[in-house]
Amino acid sequence: MTEPARVPVLNIANVLTMSRLVLVPVFLYLLFAEDGRDHRWRLAAFAVFAVASVTDHIDGNLARKHGLITDFGKIADPIADKALIGAALVGLSLLGELPWWITVVIAARELGVTLLRFWVIRHGVIPASRGGKAKTLVQILAIGLYLLPLPAGLEIVAVVSMYAAVVLTVVTGVDYVIRAVRLRARGKRAVAGA
């Protein structure tokens, strides 16, 4: 029998994931240009954020469609997402446009899930769940709305979207804790039974 071909770590899906990380400082530069108040710079920051966010969808589809899924990608992809989302939240809070408690709740959940992934890594990898993907999509939508220079009447849409993102963030965080505990318990039982 032949062994299945090993997927190289350096593939198009992982390159797109890494490009998302590279775009984070570019995005922050544009967000803070002219103290974050110039509409043209904000639109440029929004455009970079949107491009970086789209790469998340593209890299996942490419990895699944072409069999390019790697353990590196399973770990690097959510880290790249967290870096982009975290940078945007902190940036908006520093500009005084987003309450710090929202940034802290989301950042604490994201950090917690990342630590959980490392806590169970020798027992397996926890891939992103559907709820986690929905959470990321709503966070991206809410942040995008905050980045845009919206007319006064439409600002409520950004606020409602952000509150929905916070709720999804907390609910999916609890789900990840449950999945991590179960995965670790299964791993320990497998070792004990071996």
TrEMBL record:
In Pfam terms, one family for this protein is: CDP-OH_P_transf
Q: Name one GO molecular function term.
A: CDP-diacylglycerol-glycerol-3-phosphate 3-phosphatidyltransferase activity
Localization in the cell? Membrane
List cellular component terms (GO). membrane
| GO annotation terms (biological process) | glycerophospholipid biosynthetic process
Q: What is its EC number?
A: 2.7.8.5
Q: Which UniProt keywords apply?
A: Lipid biosynthesis, Lipid metabolism, Membrane, Phospholipid biosynthesis, Phospholipid metabolism, Transferase, Transmembrane, Transmembrane helix
Its transmembrane ranges are 12-32, 156-178
Note whether Nuclease occurs among the keywords.
no
Matching InterPro entries = CDP-alcohol_PTase-I (IPR050324), CDP-OH_P_trans (IPR000462), CDP-OH_PTrfase_TM_dom (IPR043130), CDP_ALCOHOL_P_TRANSF_CS (IPR048254), Phosphatidylglycerol_P_synth (IPR004570)
Q: How does it sit in the membrane?
A: Multi-pass membrane protein
Top-level taxon in the UniProt lineage: Bacteria
Q: Family, per the entry?
A: Belongs to the CDP-alcohol phosphatidyltransferase class-I family.
Q: Which PANTHER family match?
A: CDP-DIACYLGLYCEROL--GLYCEROL-3-PHOSPHATE 3-PHOSPHATIDYLTRANSFERASE-RELATED, PHOSPHATIDYLGLYCEROPHOSPHATE SYNTHASE-RELATED
Q: What is this protein called?
A: CDP-diacylglycerol--glycerol-3-phosphate 3-phosphatidyltransferase
Q: Which organism is it from?
A: Saccharothrix tamanrassetensis
